[in-house]
Specification:
Two copies of one chain form a homodimer. By secondary structure, chain A is of the alpha/beta class. Chain A contains eleven helices and 16 strands. The first copy, chain A, has two domains: 2-153 and 200-293, Metallo-beta-lactamase, Chain A (4-Layer Sandwich), CATH 3.60.15; 160-195, no CATH class. The longest helix of chain A has 11 residues, at 93-103. The interface between A and B is medium-sized, with 35 and 35 residues.
């Protein structure tokens, strides 16, 4: 799994920092999460081809998470895109995008599908051969979801010793890799589990932004390999988290610890702090394996 | 008059070029024309304080001219703006902005006034002590206006010889500067024109983007000091201007010549051309005084 941070700063875009957007990659398939203003330029700077983006997941309708979406959709159109684009986000996102396309008389020539979210409990919203994506209901000023990406293993790993012991011909191997049981010549059915190794635990990436400290996410993101959690503030500014419904670095780390995740990535930093290392320092008082997102940074796991 | 080009390239924002936006300055008052995606960052890069923008003129509702507006409005709010903001643009602009503010639950604490334009003939839409702004109806794929800025001279220049000859006391000078007639002690009324010099010709800046070749603009922009005219294409690509309703550099120069303007600035270049000097070369075959806009460039007249 590869993660490219296009932007990870809160509120307004500035000369050298960008609002939230990131690209998640599983086995060569890319998924865009959030789309702040300037995302299309950040995709170019990070050399990510527009044609590789086919699904966009929008956490909530605050500007720093979606004002770049209409521009990206329009640019896809101007550049001749033909393939479908699927957008997952809060109810209302379709109306905003279609109104702008209507008033600029520039409907896209490619198909644009909106999947509007309204559920307040976690649900499976997308699945392909690489991943399943579940919502993570968050607690913010407007309706907000995080997203849990769960890797799928398209093929099972064969237990060759067992297959040879049972004299199973290799022409059947692909079917067994795909999870099928096998029937021997004498009619005995061998369960797939006997012919393959137990699947390794699927890689899980949880994205939680924006949210205040919210323990109800813990069971949803339990044991994730990587958790990206917003840390807009430090504990010294904790009163600001009440009205704004954001988290401190320590709170992000507390969620990471409670959920028993392997690694925590912090982001969505308030621009009031000039040095982001302070977020890592604070989080490490609670949780060991803390990484700091930054614009243009990539992580590979 | 000072002009700062924040962006002057057509269609999609790219790593090193920006869609249309520019700041016009008359006697320390600034006016923003168009607001493509990324304009707020370009304002920062060009060190233009957000608080100096109080009027925004949007030519039309194509994304490369207004997708940055909602972000700018939101950032003004996040940064604590208190002063009013006036937006002039095509009908529909209010609905787009208010829908986005509503769905993000982030109405501005400052007052936001929309002045929606629908007229297809030139009209005075704004006036303060520095300028009058008139629309210039253009011919594009959607309803589009250019803008003509006409400098106002708040004070008349006094004819001191004449004032002394008539023994007019200096306590009356301010009123005369403001254009009032003067009454002598014997009751004789002296017309203001006799006590002041004829005003110098007001500086006129005409902004025409986007538009195809359209001669009806000529009487409106007649004798302007500076004309900014789009030149998306070169003559070699003239067929593309028909469907897209854009102009070539030569057509821009032809309008400049017919309108007897003093200087022509070209912009809104299609990114298919790698070197913008070709636009200047083509325009100079028709009109002498051609300047090339470029992102971050300033012009002072």
């Amino acid at each position: 799994m590869k993660l490219t941070i296009l932007g990870c700063y809160a509120a307004t875009p500035r000369t050298f920092t960008n609002p939230t957007s990131q690209v998640v990659e599983f086995n060569n398939s890319m998924y865009l999460i959030d789309c702040g203003e300037g995302t299309q330029v950040q995709l170019r700077i990070n050399k990510i081809r527009f044609s590789r983006i086919n699904q966009i997941f929008i956490s909530h309708l605050h500007g720093d998470h979606f004002y770049g979406l209409i521009g990206l959709i329009s640019s896809f159109g101007l550049l001749g895109r033909q393939s479908d684009l699927h957008i997952y986000g809060p109810k209302g996102i379709k109306e905003i995008i279609l109104l702008q396309l209507k008033l600029s008389n520039s409907y896209t020539q490619y198909k644009l599908y909106f999947h509007e979210l309204t559920s307040t409990s976690s649900e499976l919203i997308f699945e392909d051969d690489k991943v399943q994506v579940y919502t993570i209901p968050l607690n913010h000023r407007v309706y907000t979801n995080g997203f849990l990406f769960v890797e799928k293993q398209p093929f099972k790993k064969l237990n060759i010793n067992k297959l040879e012991e049972l004299n199973i011909h290799f022409v059947y191997y692909n079917k067994i890799k795909n999870g099928e049981n096998h029937t021997l010549e004498d009619g005995t059915i061998i369960a797939n589990e006997e012919l393959t190794f137990p699947p390794k635990k699927p890689f899980k990436y949880a994205y939680c932004s924006d949210t205040m400290y919210e323990e109800s996410v813990v069971p949803i993101i339990k044991d994730a390999d990587v958790l990206y959690h917003e840390s807009t503030f430090l504990e010294q500014d904790k009163p600001k988290t009440i009205h704004t419904k954001h988290s401190t670095a320590k709170e992000a780390a507390t969620i990471a610890k409670m959920a028993n995740v392997k690694k925590l990535i912090l982001g969505h930093y308030s621009t009031r702090y000039t040095d982001i290392t302070v977020f890592g320092d604070e989080a490490k008082t609670v949780f060991d394996d803390v990484l700091l997102a930054d614009d243009g940074k990539t992580f590979e796991f």
